[in-house]
Amino acid sequence: MEPAPAKLRAALEQLPLDRLRVLEPASGPGLYLGHFGPGSRGLDRSAEVVAASAKRLPAGRDLAVEPADLDQAGWALPYRDFEAAWVCDVLCHVREPSAFLAELRDCLRPGAPLVVVEWTLPAAGALVGLRDALARVVPHAKEILNEPEHLRVLRTDELEALVADAGFEPTAQRLHSFHGRPLGRLAARLTRPFWPVRTWYFRRTD
Q: Can you tell me the distance from the alpha carbon of 102 to that of 185, in angstroms, rounded to the nearest whole number?
């Protein structure tokens, strides 16, 4: 199994996802899923991806990617009582993010953490045009923020309101892009107004 990506390594410092039963919608073949606790499940609508995951995931930990279409109402019905959810680059793809998040909430135990990783634009406000321009020149940002397959690019405040309206309360926010780098914390603080990649931590309200 490959080392965990930087965004997940940063999250593991905040939450013991490697020991929790995690639900990962739109998981792909298991890049992140293989680092979550026993009994974790990934979801993907591609039959090819589901098949490929069987070769990628480590054996003996009851990990699996299962077929599910997140744009279809009722996809959450078979999935219940998870201890956490990892939602990475999903909100830009689902047709109705509010409906998706409402179904996701039903999959989690009360108080369970939700980690959302998403490319975003800065919050609306003063000099937003300049901040948008700066955000788009960050390495890889221009390609990702203009990806034609993405249905939307949210602003940070839009994302926070969307998840809160679905029944989650925010607990923390972190810039993971500088994780583990020299002076990373200082760089994250200085670039926070325009750096577009962020990780949010929420919890399901009771």
A: 34
